[in-house]
Write a structure and sequence with these properties.
Shape: rod-shaped
Helix content: 40-55%
Number of strands: 0
Structural class: mainly alpha
Number of helices: 5
Order of helices and strands: HHHHH
Length: about 130
Amino acid sequence: MLKQLTAYFLIFSLLAVNFSRFFIFAGFELNKNYITANLCENRDKPWLHCNGKCYFAKKIKQAQENERKEAAKDNFSRLEVSFFQEPFKLAFIEPVILDDNKSSFPQYTYQYTNHYIDAIFRPPKSLV
């Protein structure tokens, strides 16, 4: 239960950062009557038909400045750490030839000869 609440809170906080202008607009639309009556700079001049748009523009500009300040703060607070490592060298063990383990069989020698093959096959003779 606690893990789910934590996960929902983290997701909401990530979305809130990305959609801050949307939340300002939604808050403006939901409280339009209150903003027009109490917070608008031009509430005394109804012929301008401001209807709280001046207050909305201020809030949007303030949100943009806050985002810019946060981005500048993030750039200064980042620490770049470089990690270097020597490349891994793969070394194989050289094979060892054991002279003690020779086979007891004698080497094969071809001792058969046949003069019949020599009589049939003769190289061509050159005419020059």
